[in-house]
Give the backbone structure.
Amino acid sequence: MQLSLEEAGGARTEGSPAAPRSAPTPGRPQPRTFPNKDSQDVLSPPCRASAKKKRGEPRTEGSEVEMDGEIAELLRLLFGDSPEAADVERWLSVGFQWSQRAGLEWGLWQKQGGPCGVFAPVQAFIVKQLLFGGESEPIVERQKEQPMATSGADDEDARAPVLAHALSSILFHCCPSSSYTVCQVRPRAESEGEAAAIAAAAPAVIAAGEGAGVLAITARKLSRAAEVRLLLEAGADSWLAGPFGVLSFLCSVLATRGPSSVREDMDDPSTPLIGRFGHCSQELVNLMLIGEATSNVFDGTRWLGDDPSSGFLVRGVDSERVGLPQIGFLSELEPMRYLSVGLLYKNPDFPIWVLGSPTHYTMIFSANRSDSQLSDEASLEQQIRKVFVENSIDEGGLAMSSSLSKMLEALGIAAEMLPEAQREMVREDVILWEDFRRWTSGQFDVKTSAEQTANKIKLFLYDGQDPPGPTLKSVLVEVSDIDPTLAAGGSEGDAFVATLHTRWPDAAVLVSDLG
């Protein structure tokens, strides 16, 4: 019989060896709920049967407002106080358009570098809807073999509602209440010729801090995510696909979340969301994925400094606030030891991950829902890590021995185990995380990840950037005890494989082109 975290434990007779304990059952975080939203405010799947209706026509949902007074603040939040004109230009000529390559029709087409930190999360939500959005089983089975291909005119007509649903999902998670803002950015001009001239001059003007003089924002305030979806669907083939489409959506996200809330999310509120070379910050990617512009990818929050009363609080992915992320995140910087991605991002609700590198974002996914499930071993480590971080005196690597009794109690480990724990872990009145993890894990009888994980996992890697893409690759991940450098596709020098190893340790990886 498995014991719960509270029930686990029990005394042992003096001198008898400590028997392995049954594994605790720390509950996996649940998807986020929104108690402050209106009960009628739900985001239902798009109806493909109605996808052929006319789009591009004016919509009347919500109340229209001018946001001239907010333009400068939104642009400063995005680009900072003194951006390079070339970096701004990357964001003033890009819309949401579909790949023209056969077999990749469901893929977004990114025509230049920079906005990949928006495209990859939006693509992830599109794939989530395609594979796990409640469509009929035959459609799902077909998508498992050709996940980015349409099957004809009906599917092509359905792309606009699916895109609108993906964008609406991001906006839905950005706001804890039923209050949304959909923005449309346009040149401040009276004619098409004047608009083209202003658009050409806009990057330099915005870089000089005078963006309010060349751009205008029209916004609609709405109280239902379903209305947001209809409004975005109406603009999918027009203004969202146009040169200010991505910028319009970004402004919608910031206005819905609220500029002040976005800055409060960040460790350093002066950090621009878009940095050098137009690259998206981690804060912007997190805002797309979990609805909060936090600066880190670890689980929970941490104090920097010895004393929480005078230290600095840094924020990551906190399950108590955002629940279990729908989409995950893996980073090429983790095997380089620049950061550590938490288990929440590594084990999201759906088997879809945005993949980050120092210069680009792509996305990988599986068509099997179970490939994102957390193993008992990972669940246990998640709980152990949470307890240790709550009692640590630094970034989660060091705790004082005086906290040991409290930490063992939080894990349900019997008090009579304290002397042994002290002998095994305490060194000069401190406890190291690796020692704590190793000893406490040994007190529970859990199946290893290899025992619970499918031996072979088929992933797809999509990169919408042109050039060289858009491209789709098949990624076969095989979990085994064999040294991955001896197996096909494994290489210590391969940054992509090393990144996958942060989620599937020691797996052999085989990559092949599909399109």
Remarks:
- DSSP finds 18 helices and 16 strands in the chain.
- The longest helix spans residues 153-174.
